[in-house]
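Morning F.,

Quick status update on the modeling queue. The single chain you submitted on Monday has been processed. Sequence for confirmation:
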Amino acid sequence: MKKLLSIISVLSLFLLYSCEKNVITYDSTDLDQNAFAQVRLVYDLPLVTSTTHNITLLKYNDQIYSQVGTALGSILPNSIAKYHRIPVGANKVEAFKGADKNIVAYTSNFTIEKGKWSAFIYKESEPPLLVQDPEEYQTGHPWNDTVAYIRFVNLFHKADGVTPFGRLTLKGVRTVGGVTTYIDIASADYKGASDYVPYKLNRQGITIWSGTESSLVFALFDANGQQLTHFATTSATTKTNHSVSGYSLTKGVNYIFHLNGKEGTNNATQSIRVSTIAVN
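Structure tokens below.
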């Protein structure tokens, strides 16, 4: 029995030593916040949706940062709200498209200060629109509040794809008992961004609630209070009110709703994209 206990003790010591010798570590360094900025690039050109426009490679200052395919209205690198680290000061950004990743989709120079930024590519001939992100996001009370927070960015154009549409307001659409109401959320001029605005979510009588409301609907209104219209189908010859549906928001989470695209003379020439980024 003593011999068995001795063997077990030796094995235990060997395993402990082995674990200590094989600890997996990851090298990391703190970000020098005075020397580097954090940038999230958003692809918001006013083009009609097509995979031929998808970005397949991204460079900053001639260095490859991403090779993940990104569609119009999406975030680089893809759909997750991650940041790239670039130097404070002057920078060059290049985005390429095509299977061989060698066709220039966008190139520009811009200057950035320290901090966290969302950079919106909104026009091929202009540097990205820089919108500073807060260091800390609102989350509300974890039990009492049922609100998400929404920032609205307006990059929408008229039918020519060049002329800005103008000031727009994002509204929530609620239908209860057959009665539809429109709830003001946030307004923004062209190339403008609102603050983060609380938007109350509906538990819908659920006792044990996940904190997420699904099937949310939103609409856009112009400076005269008229709802944005569009050609709803390929055969439509007249415009009807435009709204977007199928969104899910979670309490305590901050979202960027960014509108890009343009009006059209028919269904095939319009592109109205209301995309979201969950940022915390």
